[in-house]
Amino acid sequence: MFCSRSNDVFGLAPCTSLLLAHQGSRGSLLGTANVLGAALVSWGHPDGVVRAKMRKEQPPAPLLQAPSLDPVVLCASTPDLPQLWIALASGRILVLRLSLQPTKGQLEPKRPPVQLLGHEGAVTALALCTAFSVAVSASQDGVAIIWDLNT
Questions:
Q1: What DSSP state is assigned to residue 132?
Q2: CA–CA separation, 81 and 115 (whole Å)
Q3: CATH H-level, domain 2-148: superfamily
Q4: In what order do the strands lie in the sheet with 16-23?
Q5: Which of 2, 30, 63, 132 has the fewest CB atoms within 10 Å of its CB?
Q6: Is 98 within 8 Å of 149 (Cβ atoms)?
């Protein structure tokens, strides 16, 4: 399940994440944000490609090709942040900064992904919180790491 700041709730299938583009002020007291567009991100495909689909009539477009020996195990996003966090089986985490342009039907990485290192085992949980500007990842080896979303 995915809750947006516009109070919309989305049910998501396994191995999917949702990226949203909002209209409205980020810190609005009344929560007056409208969803302008969305992209559904999927992973876990046999070819190791992370894909995004913005429109029903469009085929999913590739976002990232994971190494064949280091598959994607999780992806995470949050409505207030144009980033996709991608966790790999090796423990590496890739952060894709994205440009979501719903009127053009485009979703493009702004630059190559940032690579975060710290886990020695496969990542088993990944959560993002824009209210506190942190991401938390946990791995099979029992390690949890708090990451700063601003850096």
A1: T
A2: 17
A3: YVTN repeat-like/Quinoprotein amine dehydrogenase (2.130.10.10)
A4: 16-23, 34-42, 49-53, 61-65
A5: 30
A6: no
Amino acid identity, position 147: W
C-alpha–C-alpha distance, residues 56 and 43, integer Å? 18
Q: How far apart are alpha carbons 125 and 98 in whole angstroms?
A: 22
65: exposed, middle or buried (C-beta count within 10 Å: 0-12, 13-18, 19+)? exposed
Residue with tokens 């991100």: 41
Residue at token pair 């989305």: 10
Nearest to 37 by CA among 61, 12, 60, 56: 56
Please say whether the beta carbons of 135 and 116 come within 8 A: no
Q: Taking the CA of residue 1 as centre, how many other CA atoms within 13 Å lie in the half-sphere pointing to its CB?
A: 4
The tens-digit pLDDT sequence of the chain (151 residues) is 455 555 566 678 888 888 877 665 554 444 556 766 788 888 998 898 999 888 888 888 888 888 888 999 999 988 778 889 999 999 999 999 888 776 676 777 788 899 999 999 999 999 999 889 999 999 998 999 999 998 8
Question: For residues 45 and 57, what is the distance between their CA atoms, to the nearest angstrom?
Answer: 20
